[in-house]
Predict the structure of Type-4 uracil-DNA glycosylase.
Amino acid sequence: MRRVVLAGRGDLAEWRDAARAFAAAGISPEEIDWREKDEEADLAFQRDAMPPAPIMARKPMIVPTAFIDLAETVLCHSDPVRFSLLYRLLWRLQLDRQLLEVASDEDVVRARLMAKNVRRDAHKMTAFVRFKEVGAVSADRRKFLAWFEPDHHIVRRTAPFFQRRFTDMDWLIATPKGSAAWDGERLMLNDAPCEKPNLTDATDELWRTYYASIFNPARLKLKAMQSEMPKKYWKNLPEADLIPGLIASAESKVRAMAAREATQSLPFHDRLQEAARNIPVVPEAPAGTLEALRADAAVCTRCPLHATATQTVFGEGPRDAEVMFVGEQPGDQEDISGRPFVGPAGRLLDQVIAEAGIDRSRLYVTNAVKHFKYEPRGKRRIHQKPNMGEVKHCRWWLDLEMALVKPKLIVAMGATALAALTDAKQRLQDVRGKAIAIDDRRTLFVTVHPSYLLRIPDERLKAEELARFREDMAKIQRLMAAAG
């Protein structure tokens, strides 16, 4: 049995030199006893740790780059078995160059798990190191000290991150597995274990204030929290002493939040109500007219969308229109102007129906949903598709519009409009371009929404779909002519 003793502090060169020597001598994994250096270990054992002379006729070992990257990470693990595991993989790779791609291999699985643990430990170090100010190096440069307790030998691996991030200050990170220090010019590494210092500073209270302000009791998930911030790190985090109390009070705070929510108006509701009060008073429209229906819809609160939209965007067109176009919902420009189909999609629709010989002034144009649903992103409002609950709430207004206008032909533009007009669940592509009888008085025609055409990134596909849309409009024109 051959013996080798390594310092085992994550040094790839140390293990690689020993592995090369044993491999050159043709010594199999079963013949080597790998050990991690121990100051109290038998000196005779350590003297017997050198490999024999190489076999000159033996071919040098060749490994893929992926193995070098894997070995460099695994050697940072604290399990002593890492040396023999890597040597066994090295030996087996000479017979199977694709070994590392075998996801079910026991050695590969174990090595990759070790590498994952090392990477996770390094990530936790970058997340949970807390520097304490211990003095000043000069008038414009301060000195800091931090303590961390890693599971593995990751100090050398992680130190360059702190050098890049905190290059403008002098710091020392002490751990039981060594230390790293930066003086503004040199990154100094030491494998000697350190003792935990007893330090506090003014930033501890800042960490507590910050953590208390971002803690959301309504989203508390203990398992997820402890997965991201394991308890073993709590003792070295100034904000961690707040955690037990925050957890204990979470349930009562959630109940209090729910009670307050019941008495508070929805977001933007007060602003919109104030705007509504400032709208000039107009004579009340006669009951049973589109004007009266539009006035009723202007103060609709049937679903939460009214709270964030600027205003209700009602249908537009003649009372006796024989054709009704139904889209999905108003967009950003429609929400601001209060009129349907005046944005980019509306302009495209105007262009195509004009090419087909259709007069828009003869059409009644509306949407399945009357309020703009969006997600704020900076200064922009990004369209969000309404859900079926919101579509069903707004079906009330759509039914009343159809009852008053009594169109002979209804054009559903897009899947949302199709769902609002029919109870059957069907794919838009299965019924697109077809005239479907709703009853003995009305016909439904299905096509895409013009906004769909504007979102197609591929120019060839966009041209094809635009041509199909023009064909659909031509069919609608023929249906209008036949009905007239």
Notes: Residues 39-48 have pLDDT under 50 and may be disordered.
